[in-house]
Amino acid sequence: MRVVMKFGGRAVANGEKIKTVAHLIKRFKDEGNKNEIVVVTSAISTVTDTLLETANRVAKEGNTEKTKEFVDEVRKKHELTASEAITDINELERVKEEINERLAEMEKALIGICLLGELTPRSLDYIGSFGERFAAPILAGSLQSTGMEAVHLTGGEAGIITNEEYGNAQLTGSAEREIRERITPLLENKIPVVAGFIGETKKGTITTFGRGGSDYTATIIGTAIDADEIWLWKETEGIMSADPKIIKNARKIPYISYIEAMELSYFGASVLHPRAIEPVMKKEIPIRVKNVYNPEDEGTLIGKEAEKTKKAAKAITLIENTSIINIAGTGVRSISDVAARVFSVLAANNVDIIMISQGSSEMTLSLVIDSAQLERAIGAIQSINTGGTVIRNFTSNSDVCAMGVVGAGMAGAPGVAGKVFSALGKEGISVIMISQGSSEFNISFVVKKEDAYRAAQAIHDVFEMGTGS
Predict the structure, then answer these.
(1) What pLDDT band is residue 30 in, cutting at 50, 70 and 90?
(2) Interatomic CA distance for residues 66 and 110, integer angstroms
(3) Where are the CATH 3.30.2130.10 domain residues in the chain?
(4) What CATH homologous superfamily does 2-235 map to?
(5) Concatenated DSSP letters for 324-336?
(6) CA dihedral 86, 87, 90, 94 (to 10 degrees)
(7) Is the Cα torsion angle 79, 81, 85, 87 positive or negative in sign?
(8) Alpha-carbon gap, residue 408 to 417, rounded angstroms
(9) pTM
(10) Which range is least confidently modeled, 5-9, 143-147, 406-410, 454-458?
(11) According to the per-residue pLDDT averaged within each range, which of 157-166, 385-394, 399-408, 410-419 is highest?
């Protein structure tokens, strides 16, 4: 059996956890001599966030001494992690040496950013890549300590060749062939450990897929090498009917289709990266979301066909840090022209739109975006209103939460939307905006932030998502 196993940041949060992961991989390898494994690792928990925050800070502060102090903290953290995870002394020394070489590269880059007072998207990708580039040698070293032959690779070394769209890199046409040619020969006698989240341009410049991109790395590799399954190891049971921190009776969904999983991931469910499903759909490679603390459990299987159940809706998900922008056209131009100008300028300023709703009779357009991008979005919209001939006025509101109800059973089923909004009405919750895609697998809406958790619970209850099929 050929499997790609991806481990998230919390699964490799410290040396003891990495050691647990190494033994889990070894157990699967020992179950059958013909089992072939590719491992994809995230950075150690919180490291990437810290790297990106620090890069932004040093660009503003210009303090080289603080930069050196930060690098030393990162060194101590990873050397301690390596010491806990790797029992072979010679292997440990080799890994520590490599970490220190990469730390020297990182320090040089951070000091450069510090002195220039400038942080480009390219530099941000370079700094952000170090978390995975530290973690991969440690995990490979831990595997070596258990008696397995392992080799660690960066995304570029694994053949993940991308364009130069920093922070949201796209694969080139030759990437699948490159990955297959570089990874497949290693499977005969080694376990490749690939640094997730990162790729490389043809010129050798490091790029990233955006936050959570290690899932995407795993499915890219799985597709290229024709894996039998891709296992995404998390700290959850699998894909849940709702966030268990919000909904107490949330339950694991044993099976879900590709389309349903995509809807959930695009709409805020943090279990999967939004782009992770796309590569596997053509070859119909199953993805399994498994619990690293309960490896015997089968988790959630993601496959091609939607499962027929009595439930129209399977899951409720929400995005909390959102803002809504309401744009009114002047009437001088058609709503299509207004929309075209708005979407073009937002795209040019890298503002991602989560939801759209249009009121043609009133010449209005409502957009939901990430609150972190609101200031940039407002500036972009103001720039197109030359002479006041495009936009009459626009308003924004950050006191909102976007929500999505997902399920294949919703398609063509009468009364589903009525059931959703009736449940909200009984709770006295007003809906600010509504949107539904052509697939009918998702009904999206916006409510006040203070009403979001009650809304989620009401919908979870009305569709009995907390019980079996």
Answers:
(1) confident
(2) 11
(3) 315-462
(4) Acetylglutamate kinase-like (3.40.1160.10)
(5) EEEEEE-SSS-HH
(6) 10
(7) positive
(8) 14
(9) 0.89
(10) 406-410
(11) 157-166
Query: Could you tell me if 436 and 442 are in contact, meaning their C-beta atoms sit under 8 angstroms apart?
Result: yes
> Which class in CATH covers the domain with range 315-462?
alpha beta
> Quick one: tokens of 83?
């010491």
Return the H-helix or E-strand segment holding 59.
Answer: helix 47-61
Alpha-carbon distances, residue 461 vs 53, 77, 311, 455 (angstroms): 39, 44, 12, 10
Within 10 Å of residue 460's Cβ, how many Cβ atoms? 24
* Residue type for position 198: I
For the chain, how many residues are written?
Answer: 469
Tens of pLDDT, residues 194-231: 999 999 999 999 999 987 799 999 999 999 999 999 99
Position 382 pLDDT exceeds 90: no
Q: How many helices (H) and strands (E) does the chain have?
A: 14, 16
pLDDT at residue number 48: 95
Return the axis-axis angle of helices 47-61 and 89-116, rounded to nearest 10°: 30
Q: What is the pLDDT of residues 387-400, one digit of tens each?
A: 667 788 889 999 99
Cα torsion angle, 385, 387, 392, 396, sign: positive
Tokens, residue 219: 């499915």
Q: Which residues in the chain are classed under CATH 3.40.1160.10?
A: 2-235
Question: How many Cβ atoms sit within 10 Å of the Cβ of residue 426?
Answer: 10
